[in-house]
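Supplementary Methods S3. Input chains for the assembly prediction are listed below.
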Amino acid sequence: MKESKNFLQTIVEKDLQSGKSKEIVTRFPPEPNGFPHIGHAKSIFINFGIARDYNGHCNLRMDDTNPTKEDTKYVEALKDAVTWLGYEWEGNVRFTSDYFAQIHKYAMQLIKMGKAYVDSVDEEEMRELRGTVTEAGKRSKYASRTVEENLDMFERMRKGEFQDGEHVLRAKIDMSAANMKMRDPLMYRIRHAEHFRTGNEWCIYPMYDFAHCLSDYIEGVSHSICTLEFENNRDIYNWVLDTLELEPPRPYQHEFARLGINYTVMSKRKLLELVEGKYVNGWDDPRLPTIAGLRRKGYTPESIVTFCDQVGIAKANSMVDVAQLEFTIRADLNPKVPRVMCVIDPLKITIENYEGSEELNASYYPDDVPKEGSRKLPFSREIYIERDDFEENPPKGYFRLTPEQPVRLKHGYIIACKEIIKDSDGKVIEIKAEYYPTSKSGSDTSGIKVKSAIHWVSADEAKKVEVRLYDRLYSSEMPEGIEDLNPNSLQVIKDALIEPAVVQERPDERFQFERQGYFFADPIDYTDEKPVYNKIVGLKDSWGKKTKPTPPKPEAKEKKVQIDGEVVPMTSEQEKLFTRYKEGLKLNGEVANTLARDEDLSAFFEEALAVLNSPTNLANIITNEVAREMKQHTKEELKFTPQQIAELIKMVDDTTISNKIAKQVFEEMVNSGANPEEIVESKGLVQISDPEIIGKIIDEVMEKNPDNVEKFKAGNKKLLGFFVGQVLKATDGKANPKIVNQLLAQKLQ
RNA sequence: UGGGGUAUCGCCAAGCGGUAAGGCACUAGUUUUUGGUACUGGUAUUCGGGGGUUCGAAUCCCUCUACCCCAUCCA
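Predicted structure tokens for the full assembly:
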């Protein structure tokens, strides 16, 4: 776990501490109607991760309330994804369909409570009656059906007496609710369809909004974590559980932002389009962000979990850079996998002064990877190197083979170019070279310095393999559709050449092909006759970056010019109040403005003012602190009175307490409703203004932070705030900050 | 045009009235028989804009702006 907590962990800890939750129970509740992708991985990571972190448990539940879309093959894929990522669900896999009978009972209970009714308008009419975002909706005439009628109708719905769409069960909430979701939401609809688990047992199916909260409740879920788009549904979630008056403990819903990654797509619809349109080769195409695709490409579950951890969990919609994902797989594989040599685009080299052959001993791992293992590497007169590793007219900074520049064959000898052979088109087809017999790796006495070591394979012993080079699926950072597809996202190299040990010994399934990247033996197409390797990710390539600079990222978007909108004009009433506050009471214009525009605030102010004639200080605390409390709570919930605020400010006025203490006292008043004077007395909050006492504390603080004293003296004036903070902390906030500031400025000179 | 959210570096993201964490990316250097890795440094005088409160504001208040979600018998 990272050091900093995410907001869900904060909530969980708070709930555990307050006793709101006795035990942490989460659930991963996908609808089995599509293949899981890395977005699901994030949800799995969050739900299973939180359960693990707080010694709770996590259920795997298939939210199978819509029989027309779901299928058991998706159930398997989902289970597989969870297991692959290294998590275990509690008990059996749960299904919402397991709870159909119970959910049905709850529906009947709601009907009996008069909180649900059978509606019989058609879809179009229902939409009209629902109203719009700005206009209230209206209830249909069927909303007035009696409990008996509703019970009877609902029973007949269940028995299958009606066609799809003829009737629905709706919650009776509020057709004029500002939250559209609360305008009598549907709870059951008729669907004469075969369900993949319950078959034809039911012909009515609960809607998400009714089934989800109850399923969570039935399973004893404590924290129901979902994505942001369900924020509006939270009201229904709570309404159902509250209205049914279910025994505690009950679940609470919390939302986080779904994962977005650039250069790819995550929506079910777009993914389906790619697969069905054959733009990719099935759900496990390595270019896809599906779990199956990532897995086939060679990603490890560890790297994906790490990725989820690194990108964090928050409520801001965001788009993570694929580079972050690529980093996690490199970091995971680097210390784990063997290094081998594979030439993808071969160029023949004949070493003219070498006769015979030999076997070089080569470690699978570089010195900085503490793993054991080596193989024999055949070396001979004819070898292949990467075409890129020779340049007749090298650019500046080129370290590889050139007519003038020798290079080391990794694990082998240093060679130098003698002659370049070209075909009729001028293309280099072969290099005649010579080697330095004394330069053998490990026993080099030649004294020749080379700028780099390149990979190679021996011509006779190298094995032909297929290598599939994958690049990002889309060329656009935020792809819209198939027109943004990257035409070069897949490059199949049929005849790459690999050193023999890799396919003969098969020491691993993942490798680093030296200087090229990480590769994975394709789990499906690989055969001994035709080995196939998928490129997982390339190595970081700072040379490639220099030579072919990627199209410069659209440069830092300019700071948007902010246009001030129009401020709503004041009513004449407010205008009058404003003038009185500003002119009469000499209040700051902004403060007067805030006060005048808010009826509750101004009323509160007037009452306090009647007790204490200190308009400025009263207005300040009321437009700030009191305003905050009034925003967060209803008037009835407020535990403090205007008179008490006046009392508080009186103590500020006569310098008994500082502004800072006043805020502390106010917090206490908010919580306990106690009198300010009592709070000050019982907590001994009287302000310390004695320069001698404060001076001593300052000395102590300076002694404890000599480096910061230095920094301050060196010119880091920001640190004054740090010192003030330390002194205040040492006095529990009681030191008079003005005096602290003065004294500090003197002492730190 | 209501309601619900969100805004901190190129991309993520901590922070909850007292010195602007961290990761990716970028960049400079050291090590290196991978132009890899590792290591060391550099990267936000400023938190969407403007005001206000305070000794002190990314954090509290007011206001404006931008983006996302909501009017499926989908989830």
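Chain A has 25 helices and 25 strands. Residues 99-212 of chain A form a domain with the Glutamyl-tRNA Synthetase; domain 3 fold (CATH 3.90.800.10).
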